[in-house]
Amino acid sequence: MLTYKSLTGKIYCVTGLRVGTSTGSVEIGGNDNPVIRNPYNDEPYIPGSSIKGKVRSILEWEQGKVINNGKTHSCTDIDCPICNIFGVSASDRIEADSNSPRVSRAIFRDAFLTEDTKKWLKDRDIVKFTEIKYENVINRCTAKAEHPRPVERIPAGAEFDFSLSFRKFKEDGEKYWEILLRGLKLLENDSLGGCGSRGYGRIEFRDLRDENGEKIDLKSIRL
Description:
two-stranded antiparallel ribbon, alpha+beta
C-alpha cells in the first residue's frame, strides 16, 4: 500500500430522501414505511453501504459490467475497475495471484445529519427530522386515488456529513480514484435511496475536499 486518500464534504438533499428499513410490527394508523435511524439517538442517517451500493451499481452500468442475472459484478480480472474499487469476494480471487490487492479500495462511512440541519429542522418543530408523505395509486378508469399509504422521508434541504477513505496502491496511479469520482457525479444525476423514479433521492455533493484540503469539483467531470 502506498497511501490513503480521503474525501469529505456534504450530501445535500435537493428532494426528499428515503433510505428505508423494515419494521418489526405494523400498528393500526402507524407508519409501516420508516426510514433507518440510529438506535442510540433515533436520528435518521445514510448508511455507508447504501451510498457504496448505489455508486457501485451505477458504475457497473457505466462500465458495461452488468450481468444477465442482475447480481453484483464480481470477476477475476485483476484490472477490473469495479472489483478493484469496491472489492471482490474471496471465492473469486485469482488463486495464482492471491497476493494481488483485491480488497475494496473505497471505504464509505455512514453519513449523519449536520448540526446546522438538526437545528434548522428543530426550529420548524420537525423534532423527528422527517416528514410523512402520503402516496396513492390512481385508478386508470375512474381517475380516483386509491390505497393511500404514508411514506417517511428526510425533507428537502437537509444536509449530511459525507466522508470516505481510499486505499491507493503503488501500481494504481490515479485511474481508480478518477473512476470513483465519476461514480459520485453519476449519482448526482440519478437518485439515492428508494422511490427515485417518483422524485425522491436527488442529492448534490457539496464542498468536497481531499486529504490536502484541495477542493474537488464534480462539475468539471464530463459524462
